[in-house]
């Protein structure tokens, strides 16, 4: 349970002004160090992916197959989290480098980046944890807060969540298609058809690359084609599970708050910042851990400043934590195992009917 102090309008304005000033100081300080960092991340992605793919060509020999799969999975995680996600947010648009342009970057997952730019960058980051406005709250198939209206199929949500984790790249892509609106007649099939074509084209491209092109490339090595196919599958699975864990721990822990539509009417800048802080959860860990999460282990800072380079979040977190303390706000941070345990507890608890409000802010 959260124990935040309610802020007066004057305090909210001051709170927002402090965070605005912190953002402006950081923007003014961006430069060569940040550009070198993201280029090194890109190089690390290429090194991991190509090294992994090369090792997979050697076949089932246990050390090389396992190492190849792990390296490829590591490359996919880095590309998805620290490179793709952050670039698509426009964090490096100031470089004026087409390769790191947020509006045109296409990443190595099933969902088209255009889908993510709308459902995540615009909808989710604007309406973080607002029930009925942020589709990321449960992704339409999971009840995570008692304020969500219970439906019979929630009884089986541990199964739905397991499938979602295993196929996470597909679930976040399908979210943009709004198939629920098609089913309810609120969206016509003609409206969704262009999006479905875009989705199918991206999935086909990913499947052809991982499950056709590279396995066929291994044919001269005989049975190694199956080893490459399996290695690519394992790499994608590792990326899906890791991304699922990081994202769910950033939004649905025990102390994460949800909000009503009424609470955001006429929302000021200060209250928007406050909602981002109360609806987010951080993960503690070392530098490598933060890089592997795309610095989404600093989910509070990411929701406060989504367009600032994520490598800056660790330093920003020191000041954000101090500001939160001065204004009597809970700074929700914990280890990955501890935060993940609270998420799993929510999934298990709210699979059954229950209407005791616990976390609406």
TrEMBL record:
InterPro entries: FA_desaturase_dom, Fatty_acid_desaturase. CDD domains: Delta6-FADS-like. Signal peptide: none annotated. Residues 64-333 form the Fatty acid desaturase domain. GO terms for molecular function: oxidoreductase activity, acting on paired donors, with oxidation of a pair of donors resulting in the reduction of molecular oxygen to two molecules of water. One of its GO terms (cellular component) is membrane. Keywords: Membrane, Transmembrane, Transmembrane helix. The keyword Membrane applies. GO terms for biological process: lipid metabolic process. The chain crosses the membrane at residues 211-235. This is Fatty acid desaturase. It comes from Aquipseudomonas ullengensis. The lineage of its organism: Bacteria, Pseudomonadati, Pseudomonadota, Gammaproteobacteria, Pseudomonadales.
